Amino acid sequence: MAVSTFPDWLRATHLLNVLFLTLLARSGLEILSSFPKLYWDDHCAHGTEVLKLTRKPVPTGRLTIGLEEEERWSPLLALPGRRNLGLGRHWHFASVIVWIATGAVYVVLLFASGEWRRLVPSSWSIAPDALDAALTYLSFDVPAPGDPYNALQQLVYFSIVFGLAPLTIATGAAMSPALIGRFPGFVHLFGGKQRARTIHFACLAGFVLFTIAHTALVALHGLRGRLGEIMLGAADAEHAVAFGLVALAAIVALNVIATAGSLRSPRGAQRALDVLVAPLQQVLSRALVSRQRYDRALVTPRHRINGFPPKGEPYERLRADSFASWQLEVGGLVERPLRLGLDALRRLEPSTQVVTHNCIQGWTGVAEWTGVPLARVLELCGPLPAARFVVFHALDDKADTPDEVEPGTGLFYETIELAVARHPQALLAYEMNGEPLAVEHGAPLRLRLENQLGFKMVKWLRAIELVDDVAQVGDGHGGWKEDHVYFGSAAAI
After folding, report:
1. Could you tell me the domains of the chain?
2. What is 162-173 written as a DSSP string?
3. Alpha carbon of 346 to those of 142, 263, 421, 445: distances in Å?
4. Residue 63 CB coordination number (10 Å)
């Protein structure tokens, strides 16, 4: 039996790479379905899309929100499908953690074993040699074998490992609000988050095209021999094709299990995936403190919104008197409970910041926010030693939102760790772009957390409560979105 030129570790990481790329691609499509439009700048203006993967028209003549742009893609395509952004994100981040770990093991062993000499080009002559190999393929012939790759294969594989994969990781990181906030210069390397998002999608397309071409070339060079080498360690293995089909069936089966399990038991899937995802989200939320300082000239002309304003007589009464009778209640585990109206908040030293808003759906907008630092309000109320979390209660009842837009009932709320609440750009905003906060943007007061995704930034605030544990608040998962649509309780990525 002929011995394979591929070491065991290379064959194992190759198979794992295929599995995790399928999970990443499908969960990535689930995330994309929530905002199936790609842009080249961070304003996300209607009509300026680079690519639209939806035919859904944008409603006119009334207030519209971002959730109305979501698509419901099939579980045959997306993981898990059926408008499950929260679980799609969990699958994507859990898969990317293991995919990066697998890639790191591969790269370390590549250089430790000396295998890199067969992958990394050592001469510029590889370019004309690769062109010759490409022309040979186009003439429906097979180039002479290399060691173990011909020049075109070597150049392509090298570009995938040290080009496409790192670019995919970097553009994915450039969509994290925590990284954008802490290192705004990093995302500027790509021209902004939306450009990074578009490039990230192009990377996905690149992996798909590579997989198709790679599979075709494996078949062209001799399916049994190549599969035998990369899977069984022997070019003349008798059952190479059968083993390849079994491996493919196993990958499909794992995808089916992941999809069906997530749809049947979404909370169970969320908890299992949070073993990997939640610690990373929490560490980034605490450690990466926003330092955004954009020029006011960069403000988005028409800032998108999410969430319909509160309905009903209590809010309408507040709105009718320009919120003069509204008061923010601050209580819970504090030394000094507070009731602060807008005038009292304005008398506190104001802070202004021009920052990027990052919606969990994927859209962005730049705005100037003015308000009182949350740390100042915490200083006034005096958190007790037992306080660990801050709960933000809103005036809007989700029962007023149509189920086809967002299912669930109850007053909206979100929670954050007390340490995050003390970040310098954690702000209770009462102005946007130099004007009093508009109703659709959260009047009279909204929260700003510049290292978190938008759903954590509660609008239409009515109360702040300090607690020692979030388990007794709402359904106990850390927020309304976490309770009802399986979002993560920290939202740094």
Report:
1. 8-35+70-284 (1.20.950.20), 290-485 (3.90.420.10)
2. IIIHHHHHHHHH
3. 75, 47, 19, 11
4. 10
The answer to whether 445 and 345 are in contact (CB under 8 A) is yes
The reported pTM is 0.94
- Residue 475's nearest CA partner among 408, 422, 416 is 408
DSSP-derived secondary structure for 94-129: HHHHHHHHHHHHHHHHHHHTTGGGGTS--STTHHHH
DSSP state for residue 22 in the 8-state scheme: H
pLDDT for residue 224 is more than 70: no
pLDDT digits (tens, 9 = 90+) for 281-324: 999 999 999 999 999 999 999 999 999 999 989 999 999 999 99
Contact between 288 and 179 under an 8 Å Cβ cutoff? The reply is yes
Check: CB of residue 356 under 8 Å from CB of residue 366: yes
Cα separations (Å) of 44 from 152, 180, 300, 453?
39, 17, 9, 16
Q: Which residues contact 147 (CB under 8 A, 6 or more apart)?
A: 5, 118
Number of Cα atoms under 13 Å in the Cβ half of residue 439? 13
Q: Is-contact 453 488, C-beta < 8 A?
A: no
* pLDDT single digits (tens) 42-93: 999 999 999 999 998 888 888 889 899 999 999 999 999 999 999 999 999 9
pLDDT of residue 238: 65
Write down the pLDDT at residue 232: 62
Say how far apart CA 226 and CA 234 lie, in whole Å: 9
pLDDT band of residue 242 (cuts 50, 70, 90) is confident
Report d(CA 352, CA 26) in Å as an integer.
40
Rounded Cα distance, 375 and 43, in Å = 30
User: What digits encode the pLDDT tens for the residues 443-456?
Assistant: 999 999 999 999 99
